[in-house]
Amino acid sequence: MRTNEEVAAHVGVTPHWITERTGVRNRYVAGRDQAASDLAAEAVRGALRSAGMVAGDLDLIVLATSTPDELGPSTACRLQALLGAERAVALDVSAACAGWLFATRVAVDWLRVDTDVRRAVVVGVEVYSRFLNLSDRATAVLFGDGAAATILGPVAPGSGFGHIGLGSDGRQAGDVLIPAGGSREPVDIESIDRGRHRIHMNGRAVRDFILDVFPKAAEDALKRSSLSVSEIDAVVAHQPNPVLLRQACKDAGFDPDRLIVVGDQVGNIGAASMPYGLAEAHADGRLCRGDHVLIVGFGAGLTWGSTVLTWDTDTLSLL
């Protein structure tokens, strides 16, 4: 675990400053021998136990990450091998912090049209610690490592996911990115010296984007679901930081008590934030059968999406 005391010593602020400005108190750091697929495997195993399933029951694995094990093959294939899920088709989805919702759309649509596919796992995972400049205040105070997974399968009529609306605006792709390491700018000595293999973020631009897109995405999901703000029992969103998230939720007209906050304990864990929030809400007994859960995601790209999930079960089996 990396505490505010540890982070503050590197970025030149006080622990109180970090808590007051971001709401983040702790973040986890993967072990030296752990890659994204290792964290994902642990998350999937936990979700399988919750659903009373084994890896051999899976037909589809969709993994969302912006910090893959390597550029190729897909981290989902690494995960498949670790799980022993030999029957499952495995693929990655890259949509940054909104990735789990994009991956869920892929899995939901796949399950609905292919009768041979009955069970899918959608996992979000990030190992941001490998890509942080610990002296960069804009990123070091926020990002952590983590993974979370959800099992998708058939549910009763009227339950499960409503329409999953997604959006992108590539014109602002430079607001959050890891500049070096791809085909445009391979990593070399010069790029490393310049820190181009680390996360770069325009904090002000990202903040403005989140405060703008959150209410619009929430409104779209409510309209498509024919629900009002008062009919939403819980709000699960990407966790850029708790302070900003609470502001965005308030601006969208939602009671802050309905917001599931996990970023204070784990920081910004990117594609894992939304499934982690769902898992925590489930574990805390905050989700009951028939509850309407508004899910809002947003991330680099820029990418965003939203949906309403009608909770159906005591496990994390959703569709």
Question: Would you kindly provide a written description of the structure presented here, covering whatever features stand out?
Answer:
By secondary structure, this protein is α/β, with parallel strands linked by helices. It has 2 domains: 2-154, 3-Layer(aba) Sandwich (Peroxisomal Thiolase, Chain A, domain 1); 161-310, Thiolase/Chalcone synthase (Peroxisomal Thiolase, Chain A, domain 1), CATH 3.40.47.10. It is 35% helix and 19% strand. The protein contains 11 helices and 13 strands. It has helices spanning 4-11, 15-22, 36-51, 75-83, 99-113, 137-140, 189-193, 203-225, 242-251, 263-266, 273-283; strands spanning 2-3, 26-27, 60-64, 89-93, 120-127, 145-152, 160-161, 165-168, 176-177, 200-201, 234-237, 292-299, 303-310. The strands form 4 sheets. Strands 7, 8, 11, 12 and 13 form a 5-stranded mixed beta sheet that branches. It is globular and about 55 Å long. The relative contact order is 0.18.
Give the total of beta strands.
Answer: 13
Fraction of residues in H or I helices: 25-40%
Q: How many domains comprise the coordinates?
A: 2
- Report the span from N to C terminus: 33 Å
Corresponding CATH superfamily of the largest domain: Thiolase/Chalcone synthase
Mean pLDDT, to the nearest integer, reads 95
Q: What's the architecture of the largest domain in CATH terms?
A: 3-Layer(aba) Sandwich
Order of helices and strands: EHHEHEHEHEHEEEEHEHEHHHEE
